Amino acid sequence: METETSIFETSEMMANFLGSTQLLPETWKLCSIANTTAPESFVMDHVRSTGFIAFSGIRSLDGSESYPDDLVSPASVHDGLFSTLDRHAGGEEEPVMVHAGLLKLFFSVFDDPNFQTRMKALVEKSRSVILTGHSIGGTTASLMALILLSVLENVPSPPQVLCITFGSPLLGNESLSKAILRHRWSGSFCHVVMKHDIVPRLLFAPLAFLNTQLLCLLQLWRLAIASPHSGQPAVPASDPQKAQLMCFVLGHAEARANAAEQTQNGLFWPFGNYFFCSEEGAVCVDSALAVINLLHLMLATATATSCINDHLKYGECTADVSLQFLRKKDFMQGNLPKSSYEAGIALALESSSLLGQESIAKSARDCLRMVRQMGLTPNLSSAKLAINLAKITPNRAQIEWYKARCDQSDDQMGYYDSFKQNQASKREAHVNICRIKLAVFWDRIIAMMDNNELPYDFNKRGKFVNAAHFYQLLVEPLDIANYYRSGKHQKEGHYLQNGRERRHEIFDKWWREMEGNGEQHTKRSKFASLTQDSLFWARVEEARETLKMVRSECNSMKLVKLRESIGEFECYAQKLIESKEVSVDVLAKNSSYSLWVEELEDLKAELQQLPPQFPGFSHGEAIPRSG
Q1: Quick check: 183 pLDDT over 50?
Q2: Residues paired with residue 132 on neighbouring β-strands, in sequence order
């Protein structure tokens, strides 16, 4: 019998949340206010502990009213603002890129000092921040959400961020979609799309060929949005223009759907959850391939008029969603589905209003089946990982045993230096195999998170956060030792800047988030079993290198900087030792740290003998060793 599976759990939760609350009508109401009262900018509101920001959807993309569809790297436009998106991308992966005109539009708001002041104040007093926007205002909201998520990533107990867009165009390439998955941000984005609205499909096509028709439609939409109760807009588009635009976009949407599974650089790509609305209900999916196919299939049932008018019907859609969510679905008049999965597909088809479209019903059913989790559902995958975690534990135990033996060894080198200097021994070779097996296990977990195969809150589950943290404290010193004993630092630079594996950075983030949720630290009465800074030995290696540079450096300005660096590490290490946040191996007589302390004391002793004509090196400052 086939295992029961479900639609992606994040999209199910998003659909249930939006369908059972008044959030969609409330955010749309704010979008309407932004469109009518602040047509060139934004509006903000604060309700209880939630901050709302709505961006206008009737602004011009640039002064010429053109619609350029080229892609640019956001990190190259504004240094550092979007840099986290490209971090840890694969070597052959295209850089994260977004629509040039939409990015320019975003910065026209973001660079306003008034906006930044008000935004900062709103975030500081809010437990949740909801960004929203209609049409191109939705892309501004998405870009602002990306910045907030990046900035708040390292903040303890940050406010929750949710971005809800209505009829928003696509924003960036496939690399942007992958980056959002890697950062576990997909659940922070929900794009509401009317069944026939052409705007979310526009960037499937090269719009440079349709500027005339599109400019006319943009003017029509602006007039209708800015004056929703004024009746028909004063600049109607002719039926031939509408039909030409729809056929052009539909043709390119079909081509994209047919080639969706192929990697294609330079093309626009969906991200986050898509909430497709129709007169029959709504269906929510978070599979990019399924979104592309649904965007095509639903547009294929449109008319030249409906694809234009649907862009203005989000008020009706949001008002009906809650009622449609509560409406009872009855299969008794037809064939009863054989499983809960088939029932879910049937309900999704009915909600998308594609069930009665015989020509595309089969394609729509196949498309919705793409959303199905192939294999285990996220929660079952998490449960299986718990079993695998127990199976991998003996490898961790072997390393713990090795550390205990090193701490008691007569050579008094300690855990780190024993592994670094005894590469050829059988004992160290066995420990290295255990280290590699553990790395493979944890890298597999990171890959599953990247592919949306684990629950959305997996990185907050104490069992795995604690296991990952213990693994990091135990094993990263060995990763550092392996990096330096293999000479990689001579080719690629020091470990801190160029050698650290992505898993360790992710585990740092998990632990910071757990600590930020109220975990209290007690004062230690004895040294820790594991040094609480997993990067301590990488800092020691850099400090030893800096000490060598001091003896050979003649430039006084550089010497000052080197001296400051040594002083900072000396204070940092002493603080860790005084608070007993280090393991006993740090203080072993022949450890790298103890040897560094001896070298530093020797240098200071030499400096005490420095003649008075060298005042710049007094009080323990650096001096080259005499021959």
Answers
A1: yes
A2: 54, 164
Q: Which residue has the tokens 């988030």?
A: 513
Assigned token pair, 401: 């045993």
What are the structure tokens assigned to 334, written together?
């037809």
- Which residues make Cβ contacts (< 8 Å) with residue 389, sequence separation at least 6? 441, 463, 464, 467
**49 burial via Cβ count (<10 Å: 0-12, 13-18, 19+):** exposed
CA distance 554 to 560: 11
Q: What angle do CA 416, 417, 419 make, to 5 degrees?
A: 70
Which tokens sit at 545? Answer: 């290198």
Instruction: Give me 338's structure tokens.
Output: 């054989």
Beta bridge partners of 166: 134, 192
Catalytic residues: 135, 197, 311
Q: Please, which residues have CB within 8 angstroms of residue 431's CB and are 6 or more apart in sequence?
A: 398, 399, 402, 419, 478
CA 126 and chain centroid, separation: 21
Global pTM? 0.72
The conformational region for residue 62 under phi > 0 = left, psi -120 to 50 = alpha, else beta, is beta
Look up residue 295 and give its two tokens. Answer: 């965007």
Tens-place pLDDT, residues 82-125:
877 877 665 567 889 999 888 988 999 999 999 999 999 999 99
For the chain, how many helices (H) and strands (E)?
24, 11
**DSSP code for 194:** E
Residue 4 neighbours by CB distance under 10 Å: 10
Read off the pLDDT band of 372 (50, 70, 90).
low
DSSP assignment of 252-320 equals HHHHHHHTTTS--TT-EE--SEEEEEETTEEEEE--HHHHHHHHHHHHTT--TTHHHHGGG-HHHHHHH
Tell me what pLDDT residue 201 has. 93
Give the C-alpha separation, 312 to 310, whole Å. 5
Q: Are 204 and 256 in contact (CB under 8 A)?
A: yes
- What is the CB-side half-sphere exposure of residue 604 using CA atoms within 13 A? 12
Distance, CA of 11 to CA of 528 (rounded, Å): 43
Q: How many Å from the N-terminal Cα to the C-terminal Cα in the chain?
A: 81
H helical segments located in 20-112: 23-37, 74-77, 100-110
Give dist(CA 614, CA 436) in Å, integer: 52
Encode pLDDT of 199-243 as tens digits.
999 989 886 766 666 666 777 777 777 665 544 444 455 677 778
Consecutive H or E run containing 98: strand 98-99
pLDDT in tens, 527-537: 899 999 999 99
Residue 559 has pLDDT above 60, yes or no: yes
Alpha carbon of residue 158 to chain centroid: 15
Bridge partners of 7?
Answer: 372
By the 8 A CB rule, do 373 and 550 touch?
Answer: no
3-state DSSP call for residue 339?
Answer: coil
**CA angle (483 as vertex; 481, 487 as ends), nearest 5:** 115
Instruction: Report residue 157 CA to chain centroid gap.
Output: 17
Q: What is the token pair recorded at 597? A: 């302390």
C-alpha–C-alpha distance, residues 500 and 439, integer Å: 12
Q: Which residues of 266-294 are buried (b: 16+ CB within 10 A; e: fewer)?
A: ebbbbbbbbbbbbebbbbbbbbbbbbbbb
Name residue 598's amino acid: E
- How many residues in the chain? 627
